[in-house]
């Protein structure tokens, strides 16, 4: 949005393909067309790198290459097998991988790109007396490089993130960090990943040589702790809730917490500890307050601060929904959702609102095993592409009958944002839902395709509105409404015309779908 | 056979349809891509085994209005139960990774005039691309429709059970890649024992449709080197229910042909003898 408003001037895309993978791909491209510069680093010429010459808006005539001011740079990127580095999974494990082969041709790692870019900028600014350049000039940027390609040592970056003490010794835990400038650390949660000068993330001890917690497989942030708030695995008195599942418990003999994992608690705080009246911070936590990151040590259902909403969920309908909210009739959608109403990002009438019947079906997007997200790593691979070669929509036999769709034929799916065409897969797996007494049909859309690559097709995200959840700002692209009709979509200027027709038929205005309460 | 006979046991009851086997096979054997169009047949865009497809994962969508069987996924914990459902589109999705059967009596090998197809020291059937002359006799000979000539090339190709990997003491690429051990590789005798146990286990858990296919050394092809555990009749998976080696009657046919040829020769000789005598 800041790109469309002209506030954001430059964009680095590293392994990301918003022209396919982000909600409302048309607006994503129009945003990129409004930049001064765009840098794309990827394995192949993904849609986000070529929209300016052969993107959908060039076809519809909405953009003309010669009018686009964005300077686009494309750099071939090295794959994970061609560089060393780490993967961090949703379990918080930092797992190291080692380079297997040198990258081919001009391909370089992201680390190489960032390091040498920084180095060149510093060289460029050397000798400048402009105070604005001071921070860049004073930045320590001295990573060791090796090999013919001058690849910076990823290991050295990890060691820096992990942190060093006054004498330059590696830190082993964030508890060693001082606020007097004597220690340094890239990010406290990773402090200790390079404890003892050893890359802890590179540990690969097999499961049969350690217990089931596998604490010596890679490293988990923070403090190699595998389960957060694990004090809660013991009863308030410090004994395990379950003998069979015991995990962390109080050892009265030693006067310490112990167990299978690194205890997530003040190590020597006894279960019956009661803080002084005037104690503050962590000192104010009782011995049976396991949620140590919360000020009161308790688990919270709703937060007064920090989060916009929750965390205890309630039921809201999606932004575009064929139904009113049965649970909160006056508040169909999350009142604190993040909307961006603007030209090109119009929302649908929902529930019993007038015009909702123009988009009578529910669309859900999903993935396929054969492709990876926006396709940059899979749609250029022949072996994966032949397994799922074309964009398709999955519909039930009943919907196919209702709309005259043929298995293997074409269908056009339309929302207020855009229209896409897809091959039709009629299957009993997709069943109509029975909600509030009526049946509603579903359309399943795998979202991996775009116009480039070996396996090509329209991108499902053309259909999405940008509507974000209030806490993490995740795009809502798993549930929306749409219409479906037999046949291929119109080409050229007829495509935006069709979409505009739908908007006017549904009576969509800038305010549609933007209310907080009914 | 200088080595123990090895084979595949493909247990389709644990196949998740990831197609890792198809990709691993193509990667290892450098097989060309063969088709980029949607078939609209469930998630199966491969369709069949062929010259450039040596593993094929079939996706079969089956309506099960009479109630469906749930597989016990955790070993030893029987959770199978009949869940009554109406005929409202409830279905099960059968996935099965098909491959060359490496028959005990292999017709492709019998008819090959060049010796390109041969039986290896591991008991598998392999076609050698540098010897094949593209005559195509093997294609109709296969009772499973496995081997095929590659268009624009003419030579016949099929699964080699990764002959090169076996020689290096490694398992075939598909078995290596399979994340669920649906594809198991090993000495055939061991696999047969393991498969029998697995069927018993499934039967006990209430999956009464579980059955083996191609495991029996007394069947029409003398048993397959690559056999399967199926959850329905073989026809459902596109497999012939009673495969017979197409060259079964060949020896008898040769005998007949031989007798015929002999009597023909005898007749000719007699003719010559008679005419000769007449001229003299
Ligand atoms: S790799 Fe295994 S699980 Fe995946 S499709 Fe093949 S046989 Fe099935």
From TrEMBL, chain B:
Molecular function GO terms recorded: 4 iron, 4 sulfur cluster binding; metal ion binding
Residues binding [4Fe-4S] cluster 3: 100, 103, 108, 142
One example of a Gene Ontology biological process annotation: cellular respiration
GO cellular component, one term: cell envelope
Keywords, in A-Z order: 4Fe-4S, Iron, Iron-sulfur, Membrane, Metal-binding, Repeat, Transmembrane, Transmembrane helix
Transmembrane segments: 253-274
Pfam family, one: Fer4_11
Binding site for [4Fe-4S] cluster 4: 112, 132, 135, 138
Localization, UniProt: Cell envelope
Cofactor note as given: Binds 4 [4Fe-4S] clusters per subunit.
Cofactor(s) required for function per UniProt: [4Fe-4S] cluster
Superkingdom as given in the UniProt entry: Bacteria
UniProt binding sites for [4Fe-4S] cluster 1: 15, 18, 21, 178
Name by which UniProt lists this protein: 4Fe-4S dicluster domain-containing protein
Classification of source organism: Bacteria, Bacillati, Actinomycetota, Actinomycetes, Kitasatosporales
């Amino acid at each position: 949005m800041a790109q469309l408003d002209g506030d954001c001037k430059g964009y680095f895309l590293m392994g990301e393909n918003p022209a396919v993978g982000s909600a409302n791909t048309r607006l994503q491209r129009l945003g990129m067309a409004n930049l001064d510069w765009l840098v794309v680093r990827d394995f192949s010429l993904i849609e986000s790198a070529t929209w300016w010459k052969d993107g959908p808006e060039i076809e519809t005539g909405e953009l003309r290459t010669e009018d686009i001011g964005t300077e686009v740079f494309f750099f071939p990127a090295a794959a994970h097998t061609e560089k060393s580095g780490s993967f961090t999974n949703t379990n918080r494990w930092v797992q190291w991988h080692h380079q297997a082969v040198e990258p081919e041709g001009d391909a370089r790692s992201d680390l190489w790109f960032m390091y040498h870019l920084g180095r060149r900028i510093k060289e460029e600014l050397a000798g400048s007396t402009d105070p604005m350049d001071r921070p860049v000039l004073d930045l320590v940027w001295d990573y060791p490089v090796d090999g013919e390609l001058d690849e910076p040592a990823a290991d050295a970056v990890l060691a820096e993130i992990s942190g060093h003490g006054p004498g330059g010794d590696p830190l082993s835990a964030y508890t060693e960090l001082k606020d007097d400038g004597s220690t340094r650390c890239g990010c406290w949660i990773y402090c200790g990943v390079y404890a003892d000068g050893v890359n802890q993330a590179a540990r690969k001890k097999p499961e049969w040589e350690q217990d089931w917690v596998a604490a010596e497989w890679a490293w988990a942030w923070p403090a190699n702790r595998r389960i957060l708030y694990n004090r809660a695995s013991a009863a308030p008195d410090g004994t395990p809730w379950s003998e069979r599942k015991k995990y962390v418990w109080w050892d009265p003999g030693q006067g310490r917490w112990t167990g299978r994992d690194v205890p997530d608690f003040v190590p020597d705080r006894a279960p019956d500890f009661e803080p002084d009246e005037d104690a503050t911070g962590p000192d104010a936590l009782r011995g049976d307050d396991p949620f140590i990151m919360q000020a009161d040590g308790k688990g919270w259902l709703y937060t007064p601060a920090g989060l916009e909403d929750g965390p205890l969920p309630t039921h809201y309908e999606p932004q575009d929904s064929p139904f009113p909210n049965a649970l909160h009739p006056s508040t169909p959608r999350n009142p604190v959702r993040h909307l961006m109403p603007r030209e090109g990002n119009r929302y649908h009438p929902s529930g019993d609102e007038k015009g909702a019947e123009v988009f009578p079906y529910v669309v859900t997007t999903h993935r396929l095993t054969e492709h990876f997200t926006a396709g940059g790593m899979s749609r250029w691979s022949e072996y994966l592409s032949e397994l799922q070669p074309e964009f398709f929509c999955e519909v039930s036999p009943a919907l196919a009958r209702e709309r005259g769709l043929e298995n293997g034929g074409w269908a056009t799916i339309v929302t207020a944002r855009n229209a896409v065409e897809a091959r039709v897969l009629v299957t009993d797996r997709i069943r109509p839902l029975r909600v509030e007494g009526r049946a509603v049909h579903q359309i399943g859309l795998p979202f991996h395709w775009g116009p480039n690559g070996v396996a090509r097709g329209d991108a499902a995200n053309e259909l999405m509105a940008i509507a974000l959840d209030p806490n993490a700002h995740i795009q809502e692209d798993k549930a929306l409404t749409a219409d479906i009709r037999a046949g291929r979509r119109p080409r050229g200027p007829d495509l935006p015309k069709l979409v505009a027709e739908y908007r006017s038929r549904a009576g969509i205005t800038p305010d549609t779908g933007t209310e907080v309460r009914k | 056979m200088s080595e123990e006979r090895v084979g595949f046991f493909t247990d389709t009851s644990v196949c998740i349809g990831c197609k890792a086997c198809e990709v691993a096979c193509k990667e290892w054997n450098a097989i060309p891509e063969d088709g980029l169009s949607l078939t609209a047949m469930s998630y199966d865009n491969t369709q069949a085994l062929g010259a450039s497809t040596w593993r094929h994962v079939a996706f079969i969508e089956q309506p099960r209005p009479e109630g469906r069987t749930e597989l016990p996924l955790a070993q030893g914990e029987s959770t199978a139960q009949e869940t009554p459902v109406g005929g409202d589109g409830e279905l099960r999705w059968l996935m099965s990774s098909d491959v060359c059967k490496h028959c005990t009596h292999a017709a492709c090998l019998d008819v090959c005039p060049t010796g390109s197809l041969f039986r290896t020291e591991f008991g598998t059937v392999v076609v050698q691309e540098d010897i094949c002359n593209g005559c195509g006799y093997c294609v109709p000979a296969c009772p499973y429709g496995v081997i095929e000539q590659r268009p624009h090339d003419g030579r016949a190709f099929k699964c080699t059970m990764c002959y090169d990997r076996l020689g290096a003491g490694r398992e075939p690429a598909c078995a290596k890649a399979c994340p669920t051990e649906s594809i198991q590789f090993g000495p055939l005798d061991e696999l047969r024992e393991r498969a029998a146990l697995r069927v018993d286990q499934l039967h006990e858990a209430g999956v009464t449709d579980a059955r083996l296919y191609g495991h029996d050394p007394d069947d029409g092809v003398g048993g397959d080197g690559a056999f399967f555990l199926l959850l329905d009749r073989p026809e459902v998976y596109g497999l012939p229910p009673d495969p017979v080696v197409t060259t079964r009657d060949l020896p008898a046919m040769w005998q007949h042909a031989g007798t015929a040829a002999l009597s023909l020769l005898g007749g000719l000789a007699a003719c010559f003898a008679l005419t000769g005598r007449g001229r003299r």
